[in-house]
Protein 1
Amino acid sequence: MLKTSTQRVAAPQRLPTAAVRRVVARSASVASPPAPVQFHQPKLSGIYTEQQFKMVIKGLVASGKMPAHLEPAWEFFYDNYKLAVLNSGVDGADEKLVTQVQASILDNVLNQAVDPYTFPSFHSRLLEPYNYYEFGQRYVATLIDFKNSVLGYRERWDRVQELLAQKHNVVLLANHQTEADPGVFAHMLAATHPNLSTDVIYVAGDRVVTDPMCKPFSMGRNLFCVHSKKHMDDIPELKAAKMETNRKTLVAMQRKLNEGGTLIWIAPSGGRDRPNANDEWLPDRFDPSAVELMRNLVQRAKQPGHLIPMSMFSHPMMPPPKTLEKSIGERRVTNFTGVGISLCEELDIASIISGSDDKETQQKALATAAHTAVTESYVMMEKAIKDPAFRATRPEFSQPWAKSA
């Protein structure tokens, strides 16, 4: 049984909740507002201003409930987030909204300090008594410029939905850019394919389930928890335990695929994209062993399966550190920006690997084909997001959340 917090959930406060609803509804032009803001600690629900919030941070440090080095880090996070939201130009994006969202994040981080959640190999999103899914969606929505965001190839997403309804499995081989990617994915599909946005299972690495800031957001997503090869040797004495966790996760993945109708999102690169030497953001190289693993799992399943590349553009929203870091607790930079996802054609596995009988060559060919498709899709989508004139000439990119859609 999944562990849930036993702490009381406070009643939502009307003014900040109304502000959040206005911002999300008007920026996305959608009819359904998010659920009311929830708090584990009722006292935090009454924080509406920057001064109040920063006084709470100082009080936590003074009482020993927060390490002193986190005070400037969180103040930077607040100030940076406030700048992004207030400059968004969205009606209702004010100091109350900023503080309410920041207070809800602080509330969840503090709750994890006293009632930590341990992720199993397969984690189902937690919606009661606290709705962690809405918590994450609310935060991400305030940073999305929906007017300059796109959903690529809506009809291909229709096909994915049809396949899942027929008990087929679908694995999305995607690039990965920010901690907010699950929220971006869900927002882009919520208007047209709500079940895809909520039912997808993400293959999640170490940081997603261990970083105190990430954990509450991760609790609102369905996850297969694994340890990435990039971080397997960070702490040598934990390597054996990490490998055992990965083994259990593979068993859980195979079980879900045998049931059928499972949608999985995985980043075969093993982490977030980073800018290249020319400061260009492009999908990072796919690890052939990761793509091959998914191919084997899909082919061994009792139900039919499909490997489909997908491109994701989100890096301006929460750009990761430019270099790979081993320590937990990175500095959070946020921006209000256009984002997008776009689906590629399904991989024709038999055709791709037909050129060689060598297994290693076949694996590299499959990973290269997936990465090439994602990169080409990404380049087109990035242009559609940044150039409205170009977007207007490309019918494959739509904005289904807009009232006119």
Protein 2
Amino acid sequence: MKRILASTALVLLSESAAMAGSPVRYNEPPTPSQLPAYPTGEQLRERGRNDDATGSIGGRSYRGRAYAPIVSKDGYVPARPVAPPPTWTGFYVGATLGTGWAKFRLSDKWSNFDGVGMFGASVGATAGFDYQFSPSIVAGIAADGNVNTTAAKDSSSFGESTFREAASWALRGRLGTLTADDTLVYVTAGVSEVFTRESDSGTTGGSSARFIGGVFGAGVETRLTGNLYGRVEYLHGVYGKRSFDGGASYVHPDTGVARIGLIFRPSESDGRDTPFAPNGARGPLLRESWTGAHIGAHGGVAWGSTKLSDSNGSADGVGGAGGSGGVLLGYDYQYGRSVFGLEIDGSAGGAKSTASSALPLFSANAQIAYDWDYSIRARAGHLFGDTLLFGTAGWTQTYGRLTTAGLLGISASHAFTGFQLGGGMETMLTEHVGARLEYLHSFYDKYAAVLGSAIDARPTTGKARAAVLYKF
């Protein structure tokens, strides 16, 4: 018996000696000598990501996505994981650029003209603070200011008059949901003030006015690289009316701006110190390839401004606004991280401007409306994760209608053709369902000799709209 025990002990000792220099088997805890040598702070961070100090790691989950245990063949975590998703908590600053429009309703005791329309460029700055309340909810507050070239002009042999929206500011709150780790879809609302100015050629000075009201809108923001984020949003302002000439007349404005923004977040971190950012790699893409067909429905706000001119002068600012909605279909092709496509869409509804008069002896009214339009456009963009930032351009046609009733009852219509360009941001919500926010601006040809008169008409329209799409 003693010989058997002795021989067994010798066998065990020889096997232990043979295994002394062998590596640790898969998923077995490593010895302290096999752990990587980190600085003290970094080693604590690594151990903070582990379930225990031995190096074994349990699975993690974030916003419904499971992250598999990260265990190397030698049983420990690599020195640095790939870039984790960001946290949205922190301050930010940014610059914005876009297209703005404004519509003014003028009224007095005898008449009402809902149709002083104008458009122009808008440039501004924004700053704010966001807080990530949960893995998918972000809320914040922002302040921004804008300088605008939005203006309407009336010129004749007697001179030129210009009415413009000079500047504006807004203080807004926003609330959004993260459709992906790097992409936020949000709504926003707050208070705004707009400054207007009217001037006449041949005179000095001019008059100015301020209007206070509410502003609301929606947008999409996504991470481009590092601390830089891109934003696409639409803001709509509704303001209270003001009286002029001792209460004899009133002015009531509405405004809108579709713009892009470049946002810098100096507080951007790797997310390891916040409770709602995952520890580990980013989740997989919702859709691996954007190549394929898509269909969708869209809706939003449309505005228009028509320039009327003859040999004696012109009025650039007969315009209005209204709702618009329709359907679209298209096909995209992905090449690397770039996407190219072709799209067809149609819309019903659009901008309308009206004028009415009720004098003691007679009454009259008139309306200019753009009832429907369609376009065929190409688009190209670049993918940032599950979000596409794109530009688009193509051919478009709209149907314009002029009707009057009262002293001179007439009706006329015309199909305007032109060029359309725009851009937007599109993000995937699931593998097949996506959401889009975009702006389209259209320049149409001239309608010469309206109703056999000497007046020419040339419209310009714009649409800010959201869309829901299904990708096959």
Protein 3
Amino acid sequence: MASLDELYYQLLRQAVANKEKIVPEKVDPRMIACLAQPDDAPLIWRVKPCVCTTDSKEPCAAAAACDWDAIQMDPEKGMIIDDAKCVGCQACVDACKLDALKTKKDIIPVVQELHDYDGPIYALIAPAFSGQFGDDVTVGKLRTALKKLGFTGMIEVAVFADILTLKEALEFDKNINSETDFQLTSCCCPMWIAMIKKLYHQLLPNVPGSVSPMIAGGRTVKALHPNAKTVFIGPCLAKKAERKEPDLVGAIDYAITYQELRDLFSVTNIDLNKMEEDNVPHASTAGIRYAFAGGVAAAVTRTVEKLDPHRKITVQTRKADGVPGCKAMINDILAGKRDGNFFEGMGCVGGCVGGPRAIIKKEDGKKHVQAYSDTSEFETPMENPYVIGMLKELGFSTVEEFLTKSHLYDRKLD
């Protein structure tokens, strides 16, 4: 019987060739459904029988790795994953000693859309992309390659990080007026927001009601191009869950990972290093640096300073990355040991460059992102003309007007 990985590559090649699916005999039909129609599939797939039980001599490593109480052990069935509690951190997949768990893949229906859909399809790529597809693969070459695959265009999600930086900076300027006030970033990390919503609900009043840059990007594209489809590309499995949250549905049609995009390139004749440059500068240094831990805090700090250089209460940041580190920081806040007034949390160690579906090591990813961010002509969102140009297309003359009169990037966190 073909393994899931073998079946995946076979179906992916057939999708690229736009051929009717021909699958090997004796293949579990559930495997085919998970790959061909993954929207109804869970984030984590169990592809082998689980031998871990409540009677096992050793505790289940996958269950022990879960910080979300999403895995329970059944005496007969072994591991059972609660999809409602799973946030997509992938810790269980990495910990499973039997290699019995696999992550959700959405690339095959994306390829089918590129063949069949007669409207525009935009790729929205997360800021951590630098270096993921090779040291010499620039943003311009990647944009050309994505267009060659059939995408209408590629937009850097970092530009929406720019706008949300301004939103958070204005929220800070409005709300932090005493030494006892503090704000938790709504930022880009779905695991951070899930942690606050599920475990620390009492802190939600201190989180601005903002969507993530991914959702902001999808909503903006659809506001400007109502018949467009949007495909997010990033290092994060949790984004696949975020796009399906009830109040966010519709902004992003598909979320795929850097690894899935790499798989697609591997079964085509596209040589990324030989692609022509198609450079369209989008984001500021600050927005691009959302990709690594500390980037959000630094962006908001610098933007608040530019908004009001003489502000009496300055931004005092504290940041944490990795689920245990984030929990420790939040517990300090609740215990009154804040040591700051602006708190950034990233679910993955290192931030998005350390995402579970990144291709390169987080240390290398950070170096590439820093190098790319240094090439930006704009230090902060305040100087970024692309932001102003995009907002004018939406009917607003300034960022302040957009953020006060539009609810496109708002979210009710409860």
Protein 4
Amino acid sequence: MGLLLIIHLIAAACVLAYRRRLGRAAWLIALAGPLAALVWAVLRARDIIDGDPYIQVIEWVPNLDLSLRFQVDGYGLLFLIVVAFAAVPIFLFARRYFSTEPRVATFAATMTLFGGAMIGLVASDHLLSVFVFWELTTITSYLLIGFDDHKASARSAALHAAIVTGAGGLAMLGGFVLLAEVSGSYLISEIVAAPPGASPSVTVAWLLILVGAATKSAQVPFHAWLPGAMAAPTPASAFLHSATMVKAGIFLVGRLAPAAVASTDWWQPTIIVIGFATMALGGWRALRQYDLKLLLAYGTVSQLGFIFLLTGAGTPKLLFGGLALLAAHALFKAALFLLVGAIDHEAETRDIRRLSGLRNSMPGVFWTALAAAISMAAVPLTVGFAAKEAAFDALVDYSTPAILIAAAASILTVAYTGRFLIGAFGRHEPGQEPAGSSASTPRNWMLWGPLLLTAVAGVLGVFPGLLFPLVDAAVAAVTGISKAGKLVLWPGWVAALAWSSASLAIGLLLAWQPTPLRTAADALGRLTSRLPTAEGTFRKAIPALLTFADRSSGVLQNGSLPAYLSIILAVAIAAPTLAIVADMPDLSGPARGTLLEWAVGLLIAGFAISLVFVRRRFAVVILLGGVGYGVAGLYAVLGGPDLSLTQLLVETLAIALFAFALRHLPATFAKPITARLPRLVVALSVGVFIFVGGLIANSVRSGSTVSEIYLAESLPEAAGGNVVNVILVDFRAFDTLGEITVLVAAALGVAGLIVPILRGRRAAR
């Protein structure tokens, strides 16, 4: 598996290195990565399907127990094949879709890196490596969506996708860390095998993971980035937004669903609500689109919602239907996106209000699109039909409301499929010269990719048993149950067939006679016109976020060193204080310290508090010196004369330096004493925190102190009778070296500030 990732990386590097020479040949080199992954999957498929997963461990940071652990079982194999196989026809399509400019080679390299990141994602068993590959897909998708960077729409769409999916990825990372710490393992296989028990931390972890998965798979309310991402070139839309990237969230929820269901009571109903809401909204919005690409995009949102709820519900039968539908969706939707690219390339428009007569001018595109579209509509003898029957069969057994909602969403699917076919290939608006009437028949290269995808979909539709072992192995790898569902050419006269037949018939009727649907859509549009939309909310949220960032930066980053120190100290003590308050140990032990020690301590505290109420700078220096000398006296009382002497010398030097500095400063402080009160609060809080922390550390100590170890090992380990010297030069030699380095750096910094000033004064003289 590591070799496959290296092949992707080398292919991308070669394309980038020779981008000016390769031209369209860059796509053939980029194709090396997906082809290698596909060959690897085919060669290992039999063993993996038989229950022998491929496992590879590459040590990354052994001290942190962090490694690249790849585990390709039946579940990972299904996603790996989907990613690798979808890339082949898409890359071949892109070879002729683009011109020969050098930037296209950069696009090809980015597509290759994205494919490698997806393969690493679906094969990873370590949560942190999943996050790494997850973020790589976010970065590469940002570059692909914003490829036409001269267009404002492309830049905006790329930013939208990056912000939403990136924020979801960060939330997911928090969930991963919480889940791993609670369960005691970062390996997905171990977490699924032994799910953690219910607790507030587990609830928060699963919620954060669900947010990350929902953002990546474009679920409500995070769906708006996917239609916007249609600003990307057609190959990117076909690869990222139909077959691969949007499936990452589905991969994650399907993999973790059994553990989540075992740990929580809310996971399953939440997944179902989100999925059904996404189905309904996506299907409804698809019916109102005039752009073919946007129509398919909202259709993708709708079908992703269906797959999301099936795979994330956590039951074997629903998972079976969801995975079968996932494979079918990757085939027909990628083909449809490529065909829309061919239409746009030849007719120079995707607006169904301007397209007409493409059935005659582009017969190859028409018949290929028809084959893919009827699979999307789940017409019998297609892979979409077999997969949807498996899903409906599972929903019938699950609950009646679930099958009712799914059937309603399927009606919308059939309706927008009809809208796609009629809008693209039908004749309309005879009074206007349509753009598509003069479109030329696309070259054969435009049909190779879609034909390959639809051909495979057609074979699987007639022989769905070919897909069954792969889906069954995937379900068994996650749930441990095989033969949870079935993929058949004809399911028989069962309830699922009745539901799918009814939804197909009603959907065809609405597609043929869309007037009632348009009337309902207009009425609903008027009712919901004042409600906020996901797109509008995002457009308003970004300026508000930027304004907040600007204002908060103006307050926090104001150039004041005392303000910076106060913020740092406040943040440093806030979290530990909450932990201490939540679990306060017993501090009722006997009071320690002699009368002399307490007297010296109170004297130091008096000097420190007096600093706040003094306005003359010289008096402040004297009081600071009193604090330092008091600390030296405390060292002497506690039996550390060497430390006391060091403190005296350092404090004397500091007072002398302060006295020299006072010559160039005003005699008094400009700000009133009241301005120092917030700093006093921070200082007292830090002091109390350190004091209480010391008491807690002393009360909960169960082993030997470090001082005892130093005293015992000083002579035998370092041959030194003076334990202080041994600590400085032996036991903590690197600490001493670091301190010296800091002092040297500080000295150089001070010199860098002072020397130019002195040179300026000499020049002035």
